[in-house]
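Open question from group meeting: does this chain pack into something compact, or does most of it stay loose? Before anyone orders reagents, we agreed to write out a predicted structure and look at it together. Recording both the input and the output here so the notebook holds the full record.
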Amino acid sequence: MSQTDYLWNPPPPYSLPVRGSTRRLPVGRIFCVGRNYHAHAEEMGRPVDKATARPFYFLKDPSTLVESGATVPYPAGTANYHYEMELVVAIGKPGFRVTEADAHALIYGYAAGLDMTRRDLQLTAREQGRPWDLGKNFERSAVCGEIVPATGVLEAGAIALQVNGQTKQSSDLSRLIWNIREIIADLSGFYHLAPGDLIYTGTPEGVGPVSPGDRIAGQVDGVGQVALSIGEAE
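Structure tokens returned:
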């Protein structure tokens, strides 16, 4: 069989380590849920009424993926670079228009993640009614720890983040506005979910800026940790 002759070498697949395995999880799409904790929605000036609203999403390119423990440069174009601590769901089976009752069958595992954000650019885009890409979908902005194979659907568990050892975010997964089953069912009504898709499920209140030299550490009970160091600007 002949091989495709590319103009230049395509990038290698993006992947994450899996706890207890030598094999890695290849990453497809990265979906992010916006404003999925009431207190965070309020601190962003956009409170959510679940009775009249539905989840909304933005995407990060797989090339934005960074493994936990890395040092990343302070990104270009921003003076307000924020952390957002999140539970990440890794999809392991295909699904389209799944019900909430069947959503658990699509879950391969979980991870602790960071949705790093150029907040000033995001807010400018929001106020102008423009897409959030410059604020959210930029290089090295999706940080993720190892994938932990699931033993069930997470309904509760502490989620927390520290910067230089000082706690900045502290909440519980039970405070998600839309829980994991609801998110998967809703998202699968718009996309054919596939193995390797990641879902960042939203961040609690307490988001804030970091500077070069800062060290971020986050945890999700029953899942694991994520860590990131901020380097000097390029």
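Observations to bring back to the group:
The radius of gyration is 17 Å.
Helices lie at 38-43, 119-127, 133-136, 180-187.
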